[in-house]
Design goal:
The chain is about 55% helix and about 5% strand. With about 70 residues, it is mainly alpha-helical. It has a domain at about 50-74. The chain has a two-stranded antiparallel ribbon.
Amino acid sequence: MEVGLGKECEKTGLYIDCRRDKIVKPNSEYFSSQMWAKEREETTLYIQCRVRAWFSRRRAAALRKLRDDKDAEL
């Protein structure tokens, strides 16, 4: 008995209505847990890289301002 595959829906003493059954297949957007983990890792590394660059730019700007303030005092 293969229910829902459009083949045989009856068994001796049992009737299962298969007229409205659908075969559902994953579309092209389906991804496995390994693909999901890889995507998460890549996104995490991207965000981490951007945040570290932002921290570095802030620190460099603060050090430049400190240097310029010292030069202005002299």
